[in-house]
Amino acid sequence: MSRVALVYKFGGLYSDMDVIALRPLVGATNFIALEYDESGNLNHAIHRMRRHHPMLLRVMKHVAANYNGKAWAANGPTAMSDVARLLGCDLKPVGLDRLVNATHNRTSQPIQPCNATNPCSNQTEECDWVALRSNAFMAVHYDVAYKLFLGPEKNETSPPIQTLYPDSLGLHFFNYMTRDKEVQSGSHMHRLASEFCPVVVKKHPLLT
Predict the structure, then answer these.
(1) What pTM, to 2 d.p., does this model score?
(2) pLDDT band at 26 (very low <50, low <70, confident <90, very high)
(3) Is 117 exposed, middle or buried (0-12, 13-18, 19+ CB in 10 A)?
């Protein structure tokens, strides 16, 4: 929950360390990245919020009241998704073309019943953010993220690096799922890291 607390206190962008930045994120509005567009499940591996955004405060209160130390992601993506649904926030995917200045106290749309203490009609400020389309950071599903580390097959032609993930701001490679994978020569991970993380590659060679 420290990531949520830090963004709440100072404002700005949070990104997990297993995300490779592909394009600059300039002038972006408040957003939380979607993991699945269809389900509306959020992934708080990448989110940007203004300082003291009430959505983040609600997430922290929710986790404090419902902490689950056994289930993976229960206190992260699941908690953030649950709070968004409880508040009735709009979880329709927003593309990169609408990322700048896309929120202006977006209207609360109840998905679950609200109660007397937290009426939906008073929740517009909590919902002043957009659900960013999953391909902005989650273009590769975690089930197949291991393929990012595999080198090309014999006689396989690799597309130019500039054409990989054209609709993405970054690529989340799900270290929890891929931490035991070796980076193979010519793999997407090798090529992306060489292009976008040259200092890291130079100081800590990915290939032995």
Answers:
(1) 0.82
(2) confident
(3) exposed
